[in-house]
Amino acid sequence: MQASVVAVLGRGVVPAGTPVMRADDPGVLGEGLFETMLVRDGVPWLLDEHLDRLAASAPALGLAVPTSLAELVLSACAKWPPELEGALRLVCTPMTAFCTIAPVPPRTLSLRVRTLPAASGLPVKSLSFGPSLTARRWAAANGVDDALWVSPDGYALEGPTASLVWLDGETLCTVPPSAGVLPGVTAAWLLAKAPSQGWRAGHRMVKPEALPAVGGVWLASSLRGLAEIRVLDGVELPQSPHTERLRAMLGY
């Protein structure tokens, strides 16, 4: 397996395994933000959009975001083999910023999903990632591939690490940020491209029991791309004829 690339703000690319955080960094306790990007052909996909989301999230944590994060990311990408896809994680804490690149985990393209009451928290991609990891472990323990968080009033929200996207008639939909979800970079890109496919784009709320009747249901994220939900709470969903077209748009 290809070894990780590690780059640290102010230090550049360092050997893999080099310590990158001090023990007294508040990031150790989860005070910080991160973004995950796909490196394709040596280039971080949707870099500007990910940096914009990180900057928009920073005030919620009182975090000052360095202005040189793009240069940090690009310095790491320059050391990654361009023929390999890479999973890049950019981390920003009160005391440092660093990024790592490692091989992309195997993708599961057809998902069995169960709903789970939503975890409370800010709609930011913070280092306090415990609820998401717990939800993924809960899904595995219950014999499914992933979880779909549901609001107290019964609306589908998002996966622990992915945005919910569905096709309702001629409208490609995702959940509005006002529902308290993390604004998905990949989902936003898909909705921006919807008119080129003859669809409208919309932010809507939907209940899980309505999803078997729509034209396709997916979880979207930077690394997995687009994974179709085929079983939801034990109910088999029809296979969407649009999945391959959407994946081709994303380049996955």
Automatic annotation (TrEMBL):
GO molecular function: transaminase activity
GO biological process: carboxylic acid biosynthetic process
InterPro entries per UniProt: Aminotrans_IV, Aminotransferase-like, BCAT-like_C, BCAT-like_N, Class-IV_PLP-Dep_Aminotrnsfr
Record flagged with keyword Transferase: yes
One GO CC term on file: cytosol
Keyword Transferase belongs to the record: yes
Family: Belongs to the class-IV pyridoxal-phosphate-dependent aminotransferase family.
Name by which UniProt lists this protein: Putative aminotransferase, class IV
Lineage: Bacteria, Bacillati, Actinomycetota, Actinomycetes, Micromonosporales
